[in-house]
Amino acid sequence: MIFILGSGYAGLNAYYNIKGGAEKILLSHENKFVFYTAYLRNLIKNTKYEVSLNFVRKEDVKDVDISNLEIKTDKGEYKADKIIIALGCKRPNLEYIMERINNKNVKEEMCITAEDEYDDYLALQITLYSKIAGKNVRYHGNFLSYLGNKVANVVSELTQKYIKTCEEPNLIIEKCVPPEFTGLLSVNSYLEVKKSVYAIGDIIKGWPKLGELAMREGIYIGKKISGKLEGEFEPIYIHIVDTGREGIHIRSKVPWGINYQEVKVSKIRSLMKRFIEKYYIWRKGNMGFLYYL
């Protein structure tokens, strides 16, 4: 039996891509998919960002014995043939930040940043949406410099047409916190923690925490387990920053030590991001053909 732990971006796409009659169970503390890209858009427009999942076995994972392939939940214990750990991590104060920005009684200037540089894209997008909504929010960060100088230069030049920077942050997106019983997990080039145990998504140590990347990891593992894919996982960071007028479409391998950067800017890419937000709710988190974009 294959157990997938977690119903986020990574876990769902692993589940969808395990085929060929393999027995699989998806365990999660909630039977719904939350698409955080759409969640952020609620700063400017009411947007549906979650959808129910009727195939999830709703159980809260309490412990994972990686050595013995054993799982403990609030409802029982399981022995697995393979375990895919996609439990992600939690950003403790993201909801608070969203509520504070949306609070009409807050008048003082807000300066937002991210504790983890890999979360800089969140601080930047929140600032851009806040500006569109007429909120007094400024940005403190490095304009996604972790993706390379080419990316940072384009992002800095374009976004500063719309937003202002600040030096003393008073809203800090706290670092993502993984489950205590696993911590962040190191993987090899096949996303293996050890034989028959895989880690995908935000729980991978040292990697960017990005939904698009997590989906690709899930697809890779699902196909690999099904015998439809060989070779190493080739990570790439793909993301669209929406300024409200145009989209900055970024592709980079710099976080993995490869100097590949591609940046394209157009109005159609802004519209593409809005389509993606609707698509993933409709598809219940299934990446599908967007894998090839």
Description:
By secondary structure, the protein is of the alpha/beta class. The chain folds into 2 domains: 2-90 and 176-225, FAD/NAD(P)-binding domain (3-Layer(bba) Sandwich); 92-175, no CATH class. It has helices at residues 9-17, 36-41, 94-102, 120-132, 149-159, 211-225, 267-282, and strands at 2-5, 24-28, 32-34, 50-52, 57-58, 61-65, 70-73, 77-79, 82-85, 110-114, 137-139, 171-173, 192-194, 197-199, 237-242, 247-252, 261-266. It has a 6-stranded mixed sheet, covered by helices on one side. Strands 6-7-8 form a 3-stranded antiparallel sheet, with no helix packed on it. Strands 11-10-12 form a 3-stranded parallel sheet, with helices on one face. Strand 15 and strand 16 (247-252) form a beta hairpin. Helix 1 packs parallel to helix 6. The longest helix has 16 residues, at 267-282.
Q: What coarse outline follows from CA principal-axis ratios?
A: globular
Rg, Å, rounded: 19 Å
Give the CATH superfamily of the largest domain: FAD/NAD(P)-binding domain
Mean pLDDT comes to 97
CATH topology of the largest domain: FAD/NAD(P)-binding domain
Approximately how much beta-strand content do the residues carry? 15-25%
Estimate percent helicity. 25-40%
Count every helix, treating DSSP H or I runs of 4 or more residues as helices: 7
